[in-house]
Amino acid sequence: MAKIKPAVEATPYTGERTSKNYAFVDAVARKNVGLTVANIRRDSPVLAAMEASGAIKIAGAMYNLETGVIDFFGG
Question: Would you list the DSSP string of 29-55?
C-alpha cells in the first residue's frame, strides 16, 4: 500500500474511493504510471539527459488484460 499511496492521494475522483470501484482503481493506476515516469526523469539524470537529447523517449503505458491493447501515455 505504501508504494501506491502517493497515486491514491493524487488521484482526483468524486466517486467511491475504494478498491472495489474499478473506475477508481483504473484512475489510480494511470496516475501511478504518470508519477513513475516523473520519478524516473527526476531520479535519473542520465536518462533525463538522454531523453532531452532525443536519444530515448520515456513513456508510460498500461496493458489491458482483457483486450491485449497497450495504451501509451503522452508525456
Answer: HHHHHHHHHHHHHHH-HHHHHHHHHTS
Each residue's pLDDT tens digit, 10-57 = 999 999 999 999 999 999 999 999 999 999 999 999 999 999 999 999
Q: Give the span between the Cα atoms of 60 and 71, in whole angstroms.
A: 8
Task: Report whether 58 contacts 40 (CB < 8 A).
Answer: yes
CB distance 12 to 32 below 8 Å: no
Rounded Cα gap, residues 33 and 53, in angstroms = 23
Query: Angle, nearest 10°, between helix axes 22-43 and 45-53?
Result: 90
